[in-house]
Amino acid sequence: MPSPLTPRQILERLVAFPTVSRDSNLALVDWVEEFLDERGIAAHRVWNADRTKAALYAHVGPEVEGAVVLSGHSDVVPVEGQDWSSDPWTLTERDGRLYGRGTCDMKGFDALALAALALAQERGVKRPLQLALSFDEEVGCLGAPAMIEEMARCLPKGRAVIVGEPSRMRVVTGHKGGGGLLCHVQGHEVHSSIMHRGVNAIMSAARLIDWANRRNAEGAAGPPSEVAALFDPPWTTVHVGTIRGGTAGNITARDCRFDVGFRAVPGETVEDWAAAFEAEARSVEAEMKAIHPEAAISIGRLFGYPPLRPEEGGEAEALARRLTGDNGSMVVSYGTEAGQFQAAGYSAVVCGPGDIAQAHQPDEYLEVAQFEDGWSFMRRLVEECAG
Ligand SMILES: [Zn+2]
């Protein structure tokens, strides 16, 4: 018999693995695999290219379609430069709160999901449960697509996905899609007194950045679509967060680099927006090349994930509403893996313990009461799956 572990003890173990996205998550994956194995649950890994990280998925219950999928990520954001009152990698309770990196985003839900799988295995279920534990979520939802693809191929097809990002156990039915580009404008350096013979990379970049300003103004002015109207703001935003370029006030800048971030409302895609940006860049580039042939604009893709569109009569929404009793309507502006599951043909919602306001913060915490609400949710889910 495996040693019985409470959800709280599981969370303690998970928090102790410093699974910052840039580092390996394999120690955590080893532990989770052993936890499941001890309970007779087979787990499967989906590796990254250099086998330094892995996603993990598992199936409990009869080999039939229609599973409820519990989806979490194993990685967390860094703690450097943050002022913590206690060790971020040691779960610490103070004043009804569980402090530690990842407690809220989202190892609290991961612990509950593992406890739910163990309970379902012990109790026996008619409707299967599946676990989907990804990596590299915090750096742009990079780890989930390969895992989702393999789950859909190798397991009896699951149907309703609960992505446990912090929502205070409210049912979130929609979020924007997101994506980012890195843009490198290469100009031609001359003395600024003869700037007409040079190509100023910063001033060319400014034209592309102003393209973003104009798109945002159009979005703000236009009437939103029905689904976009649910969001704040109700349009796709184009944002430039960093810029770097130039060497001196009297030299036309040879290089300018900036990032472009899109947050797309459902019904629009980051790919279309990125293509529109690229088209603008090509037109600016043509004018630059007319002055000097070596001038160029190169665009690299950073990441991209699809929006979560509220479903008509969605199965995941109905399930989550039954289990939480929440009938309010809620969409969020942060991205999750729910849109990726939906794009792969699953019904998906976001519902998890904790508040997004505590995510990524120094002294990140999960309220004990939220963790307990989450555990009640999981016990009701297992009861329902037991039939
Ligand atoms: Zn998260």
From TrEMBL:
Keyword list, A-Z: Amino-acid biosynthesis, Arginine biosynthesis, Cobalt, Cytoplasm, Hydrolase, Metal-binding, Zinc
Residue ranges occupied by any Peptidase M20 dimerisation domain in the UniProt entry: 173-286
Gene Ontology MF term list: acetylornithine deacetylase activity; metal ion binding
One GO term (biological process): L-arginine biosynthetic process
ATP-binding is among the record's keywords: no
Pfam families, A to Z: M20_dimer (PF07687), Peptidase_M20 (PF01546)
Keyword Hydrolase: yes
Needed cofactors: Zn(2+)
Family statement drawn from the similarity comment of this UniProt entry: Belongs to the peptidase M20A family. ArgE subfamily.
Name of the featured protein: Acetylornithine deacetylase
Organism, scientific name: Cereibacter azotoformans
